[in-house]
Structure formats: structure tokens, C-alpha cells
Amino acid sequence: MSNLGVLYKYELKKLFKRRIVWVTLIIAFTASALSMILNLCGYAYVDGVKLESNYDAFLVDKGYQMQLDGREIDQTLLEEMLNAYSYIPDTEKKYSTTEEYQKYARPYSAIFNFVRDMTQMTVSDTIKWKPDTDDLYNKRRNLLESNWVSEGLSEGEKQFWLQKEAKISTPYVYRYTEGYYMILISVATNGLLTLMSVSICLANIFSEEHSKRTDQLILSSKNGKTAAYWSKLLAGISFSVGISLLLLISTSAIALAMYGIQGFDAMFQLIFAWCSYPLTTGQAVLIIYVCVIATAAVFGSFVMLLSELLHSNIAALSISSATLIASMILYVPDQYRILAQLWCWLPSGFLTPWNIFDCRLLSIFGHYFTSWQVVPIIYMIATVIIAFIGKPIYKRFQVSGR
Amino acid sequence: MELVVDGVSKQYKNSIAVDGVSLKLNNGVYGLLGANGAGKTTLMRMICGILKPTSGTISFDGTDVSTEEYRSVLGYLPQDFGYYPEFSGMDFLLYMAALKGIPKSQARRKADELLQLVSLQDAAKKKIKIYSGGMKQRLGIAQALLNDPKLLVLDEPTAGLDPKERVRFRNLIESRGRNSIVLLSTHIVSDIEHIADDVLMMKSGRLIYNGKWDMKMGDLEEFYLSQFGEEDGNE
Questions:
Q1: Predicted confidence pLDDT, tens digits, chain A (402 residues)
Q2: A117, A142, A167: which is the final residue of a domain?
Q3: In this complex, which of A6, A215, A226 lies closest to B98 when CB atoms are compared?
Q4: Pick the CATH number of B1-73+150-155+172-220 from 3.40.30.10, 3.40.190.150, 3.30.420.40, 3.40.50.300
Q5: Please, are residues A359 and A276 in contact by the beta-carbon 8 Å criterion?
Q6: In chain B, where does the domain assigned CATH 3.40.50.300 lie?
Q7: CA of B49, closest CA in chain A: separation in Å?
Q8: Could you tell me which of B199, B203, B228 has the C-alpha nearest to residue B19?
């Protein structure tokens, strides 16, 4: 009898009996919640003068954005917006502090910022811009295409994206999507907190058996060389997945509670203009969930492999943390296409909106796949491979010396 | 029931810990004596399958030491017995029972029985980290007995036990030896005299004595001291 279920339960018990696990989780959840909550705390200052509280600003802007909800971003709306912005006088002051901005332009600030985001124009250029729907969407397309060139996309990849672009109908329909935007931009913070927590909590899942000398009892028992290994691995992976899911759910719940749940079926391009895939914000959030969970699983198995290989939690923690730091400070230039793409696909660096929704594709037998389609599958396969690499290392351990 | 150790050696870079040991053990209690560094622990680890011999084979009733079947009849108490400080004694035994493949339905009954046997029933729900040295050692003995092992290997089992506990332990091992092979190592010669049916003596990795010890042959302790003299140093 392998007793895998009972062993799994005890592995989780060992994990949650450790104080460091609880301390790490409390810090991770607090940091994640604060990163969301603090956005609405404090005040906006212009030239040292307090303008308004961030919360008041949010309420005012949300009210204006809700008035625009459901309107097409077409010629009429663009003209309305620029007409409103034309009231802002030429002044030395920051334009957003003027009375005219507050009275006329602010109700359209969401559209103004959307146009700036789509066209990468400066504030003054946008104000001077002659509103033109075709020009707006063409500008975005031109920027996209030049980005495809700089990223080294092949003709096949460009064709793939052009086909996807054709499925995105214009003019876009404006929707209030602030809650989902906050979830999107929190992915990097959440990803880092998840991987750091996994690293700290799992670094000694195998090594502690050697340091506590319980390895002798485990390895000399009937299920000690097989079921015990799988139970540890399953406990570590389910811990990683569980933590990532809980962090995502808690952050999403806070974001949606604070900013509103509206916009689940809005087009994703409203919050991430540079994605050419026809997705809704809800679909994008679910994709982020899958990517974070798969990343946590593969990183967890990597940390556990280090734990068994090095027999030291400090060494396992150091190496896994170093990979996280390396992805933050090292950058592979885009001209080294394959290397740059692989670097962005490493678990330590993958969890950012621009890497998850990267325009660089993977071609398999003439079919193209996006990062978010292929990387979670690669991670799942890698998790299984790492598990099987670790098995003989664990099994062959020799209790000597001491 | 037969444990066969055939020409087993363990060589490290610059030293030989066990040098060509051959043994055939049947039901009974075997006392393994030897100075620190004589190779007792290394031999026991190899018999328990947690250390691979450089050469030679070990089998129980024809089953190789590396198999799950072999491990299923094995009970082992290591010299440096490790535990989980945050687990209760009961939790520890239930975890060990799962490792030994004992069904959940039987595990609790068996754990209760053994905690009673080693007089830890009142401390069953207490965390191991508050146990005394003797209590931990008794818990270690209990876990070794969980699967009613046919081959019981005990490395320094009486370390940390007070005289009363030692007597209880002797009786326990004596009864186990009737139906299984018990191999125990100790520094305490009187333990061997009282418990063991046969004496095994190791020196510098070699087996220098294997057989019954009769009082007619003289005092075992004197024989032990004459063999090891001043050499009992660091392991």
C-alpha cells in the first residue's frame, strides 16, 4: 500500500508547521493587498500644492468614465474630446490644474489618455491633433508594425498578427475597465511575490530531511523511495499552485471591490493597446491566472530539485532568488531574437503583461502559437521532466558520514 | 528467515569502513560490539539499504536489500534518530506507519499499542520537541516496531534510556527475537550479555568474532577490552 494520500497530507502538515511559511505568506498577502490599496491613498500634488486625494480623484474620474461607457471611440467622440480639451488655456501651469481642464476636459480624460496610449503622442501633440478615426487606428497599426520589425518578427508572424488584427473591430467601444486594468498591472508584483514565497517555503522541503536526519527513517521504509518522493513533490507543487491562486484571487477581489467589476467583456485593447489578439479583458485575466499558476508550479518543482540536489535550504534559496533577480536586472537585446525570447520565457521573468502578451510567436510545423498559449504547456511539461530528474537523485541518496 | 551478508565492503576515498564482512543471521538477537569507527553503523546502514556497499550483497530470504519488499520487513532505529519537533508523538508514528505501508485503518491501533508499550501514551499528543532524550529514544524504538519487522536493526538503542527503561527494553527485544532477526549495536557490554543470543564483534571494518558467548569463555567485557584496548577513540 503506497499511502500516497496520507503521506501527502503529512507533507503539507510539515510545511505548514514551519513558522517561516506563515511569516512569508503573511508578508506576501499583505504586500499584495497594500500594492492595490495604496493606489487610492494619499494626495495628488502639483508643484507642491495639494490638488485632491487620490480616492476623490478616482471617484470623480470613475463617474466621468461611466458616462462614456458603451460609446464608440469614433469621429464624434474624438471631436467632442478635443473640443473639450481646446478650452484649456496656454499656461505655464500644469494643464490638469486649470479650471478649464476640470470643467470641460476632465470628463473626457479617459479618451484623451486612450488616444495618447494608442498613438504615443505627447500631451501637446494630442491637443493639437486633428481628430480622425482612421488616423487614430492607422497610427496604432503603424506603431504595431514597426514594433514587429524591431522585435524581429518573420513574415509568417506578421501575417498571423495581421489576420488577428482583422478580427478586432473598429471603432473600439469604450468601456469602464479599471478593475481589470489594475489586475493586469499587478501581475508582475503578484508574480514576484508568488515566486519569492515559493522559493522561501520550498527551499527546505527535501533538504530538511537530511539536516534533521529523518532521511534514514524515510529511505529505509517501504514507501520511502517512491511514494514519499511523489508525496513531497505533489505537496510542493500544490502549495505553489495554491499560493499563486490565493494571491491572484485576493488581489483580484480587492481590485474589483475597489474599482468595480464592470468591463469583464470589454475588448482587451482598451487596457493593453499593443495586444493584437482579439480578447476580452475577462479572457485576458483568465490567461494571466493560467500563466501565473503554471509558472508557480514549474518554479516550485525547480526549487524542490535544488533542495534535493544541494541538500541545503540556503543554497536552494540563494540560487532560486538569484534567478529572480537576474531576470529583473539582465536584459537580452531584441536583435538576438531566439535568446531574447527564451529569456522572456524563463519563469523568473515571464510574469509581466508584455511577456505574457508578447508579439513574438513560436512556430511549430507551420502553425503559430502565442506566448500565453505555449509557455504554460512548456512549463507543465518541464514540471513533469524536473520531477523525473529529481526522482533518481532522491532515490540514490546515500546516508554516509555524520 | 535468513539475512545473508555476503562479502560486503564499503570503501571511501582513503579508508575502508567495512572490509569484506560475511554473515548469515537467523531468528534471534545479535549484539554488535565494536569501538567507535569500527564500522558498526556503516554495516547497519548497508543492511538497511540506505548506504550502498562498494562490493558484496545483502539479502533477506533471497530478496535484495535494494527492493521495496526487503524494506517492508525492515525496522530501523538509527544512531542519530531524526524527528519532526512540531509533530506530536502520535503524528510521528502515523506518518511513519504511512511510510511503512501500513493501512490507515490499522495505523492508529498499532500506534496506540506501541505508545503504550514504550510508556508514551500520556505524551502521545504532545509535541516531540518537549520530549526528554529518553522519551525520544523510546519513540524511535516504537517507530521501528510499527510494521512488526522480521528484520529489526537497532543502532545504539539503549542510549539515553534510564536503568528502568533499559530493563523494559531488554525484555521487549528478547520477545521480538523469538520471531525475528534483531541486530543491535551498543557500547554497553552488559546489554549484549543480557539480551543477545549471539555476539558479533567488529574491529577496523572487519568481523573479528561471530558466535555465541558463554560465561565459560570468560567475561565478555574483558574480552572486548582486550580486543580494543586503547583504540576506542573518535568515530
A1: 789 999 999 999 999 999 999 999 999 999 999 999 998 998 887 767 778 899 999 999 999 999 999 999 999 999 999 999 999 888 777 888 888 999 999 999 999 999 999 999 998 899 989 999 999 999 999 999 999 999 999 999 999 999 999 999 999 999 999 999 999 999 999 999 999 999 999 999 999 999 999 999 999 999 999 999 999 999 999 999 999 999 999 999 999 999 999 999 999 999 999 999 999 999 999 999 999 999 999 999 999 999 999 999 999 999 999 999 998 889 899 889 999 999 999 998 899 999 999 999 999 998 999 999 999 999 999 999 999 999 999 999 999 876
A2: A142
A3: A6
A4: 3.40.50.300
A5: yes
A6: 1-73+150-155+172-220
A7: 6
A8: B203
Q: What is the pTM of this model?
A: 0.91
Domain assignment of residue A131, given as a range: 40-142
Q: Nearest residue on chain B to A10, judged by CA atoms? A: B95
ipTM more than 0.85?
yes
CB contact under 8 Å between A216 and B50, yes or no, is yes
Give the position of cell 520477545: B175
- C-alpha A319/C-alpha A304 separation (Å) is 12
* CA distance linking residue A399 with residue B50, whole number of Å: 6
Contacts of B42 in chain A (CB under 8 A): 400
Chain A residue at shortest CA distance from B98: A3
Same domain, A244 and A372: yes
**Interchain proximity A3–B48, CB inside 8 Å:** no
Bridge partners for B127 per DSSP: B88
Q: Quote the cell numbers at residue A97.
A: 490644474
